[in-house]
Amino acid sequence: MSTDTSAEIKIFDRRESEARSYCRGMKAVFTKARGSEMYDSEGRSYIDFLAGCSSLNYGHNDPDMKEALMAHIAGDGIAHGLDLHTETKAGFLETFEEKILKPRGMDHRVMFTGPTGANAVEAAMKIARKVTGRHNIVAFTNGFHGVTMGALAATANGYHRGGAGTTLDGVTRMPFDGYMGSDCDTSKFLEAMLKDGSSGMDAPAAILLETVQGEGGLNAADPAWIKRVAELAHEHGALLIVDDIQAGCGRTGHFFSFEEMGVMPDIVTMAKSVSGFGLPMALTLVRPEYDVFGPAEHNGTFRGNTHAFVTAKVAIDKFWSDDAFEKELARKAEILEEALTDLAGMVPDAFLKGRGLMRGVDVGSGDLAEAICGRAFGKGLIIETSGSEDQVVKVLAPLTTPEETFRKGLNILLDAAREVTVQTNVAAE
Ligand SMILES: *Cc1c(COP(=O)(O)O)cnc(C)c1O
């Protein structure tokens, strides 16, 4: 049944836009996926440590989500309902309220935005501006918030910003935690800028941050720093927006990445794994007093994806009804830390990044990180890099990966790193 991959790939080279990216480093044509494994047209299997960039935290084709979705479709359930009341949307909202929001003391309203993370961020930024009557938003070095114009203004990466072709306004950049080294508390700089009427920074409508910067290199902010930034937001009349699009849905160990920090954001953005099944769906959670948009003021044809409501409800019922899943995540985080410590030991000056199951190793150069990921792919592991120079080897395995598969994937990564670093060391001598 084997086919010729290079012949199959020709259609992508010939016809697909140059804007394609992940596929360039992974020369395979994928056909199927189940759990934490993917299969290609030549019958090879791969362990997936990319998980749709954390859109597949519960793995591919979870059997319970799949069954519920197939039953929904087979029964002529609504596929697209604009923002009409549907039984399916009610089911999702009731579960989300009961199992996620209420136990965490959150009275936030749920706004369904267009189905991308960027659109949830756009909504969040617009809400903060409308609430405060201010235009400026504080965002941080290495932050990533999407690539539509409003969100892109908050995104730091120069390559992405360059794609705008025009000025990106309304955001003041501040140094994230650790940006000036571990002994510099950058919240002090933010505090000084906010306090001084002549700092040159306009009073902000919001402070927007990721608690762990996903695309920006897995920079995990210290909880004390996050708490201080949250206090500063409130002291200065700005809303606190936590972009939990990548770090949420269990990735850092709890449903939200800011849990157990004594911080309650005014607005939370969610996308990626919120549908549970890899279907497009995004939410902007907003405190009721800031729920200021009029009907359809921030509209969109695909607000709320009915198929995603089906699978999202199953995901929450299945994984977030008690604390068993969180305990499993804590165990897996230890396995991951151990393996990545071994990896870091192979590269001079390498160090661990991230938190929970959103972790990686800064190996100091994009070329080395890419060589390790490329070598791993050849051995059947799908894994990507992150960071300003793509210098971080980043593990985003499905959170549901069975321990045996998880260890197998980590061993492939370690073998790849060993082979690449031995070669590099030999070349250097
Ligand atoms: C992926 C991501 C986004 C953008 O989501 P899209 O669905 O790609 O628009 C925004 N913020 C963070 C933190 C992300 O990881």
Question: Could you characterize the architecture of this molecule?
Answer:
- This protein is an alpha/beta fold and 429 residues long.
- It folds into 2 domains: 7-62 and 327-428, Alpha-Beta Complex (Aspartate Aminotransferase, domain 1); 78-319, Type I PLP-dependent aspartate aminotransferase-like (Major domain) (Aspartate Aminotransferase, domain 2).
- The chain is 39% helix and 16% strand.
- It is built from 13 helices and 17 strands.
- The chain has helices at residues 5-15, 51-54, 63-74, 87-101, 117-132, 149-154, 158-162, 186-195, 223-235, 306-319, 324-345, 366-378, 403-428, and strands spanning 30-34, 37-40, 45-48, 109-112, 136-140, 171-174, 204-209, 212-213, 219-220, 239-243, 267-270, 283-286, 351-355, 358-362, 381-382, 384-386, 392-395.
- Strand 2 (37-40) and strand 3 (45-48) form a beta hairpin.
- Helix 3 runs antiparallel to helix 10, helix 4 packs parallel to helix 10 and helix 8 packs parallel to helix 9 (223-235).
- The longest helix is centred in the last third of the chain and has 26 residues, at 403-428.
- The relative contact order is 0.15.
- The structure holds pyridoxal-5'-phosphate.
- The site of pyridoxal-5'-phosphate has 15 residues, from helix 5.
Summarize the SSE layout with pairings.
Elements: H1 5-15, E1 30-34, E2 37-40, E3 45-48, H2 51-54, H3 63-74, H4 87-101, E4 109-112, H5 117-132, E5 136-140, H6 149-154, H7 158-162, E6 171-174, H8 186-195, E7 204-209, E8 212-213, E9 219-220, H9 223-235, E10 239-243, E11 267-270, E12 283-286, H10 306-319, H11 324-345, E13 351-355, E14 358-362, H12 366-378, E15 381-382, E16 384-386, E17 392-395, H13 403-428
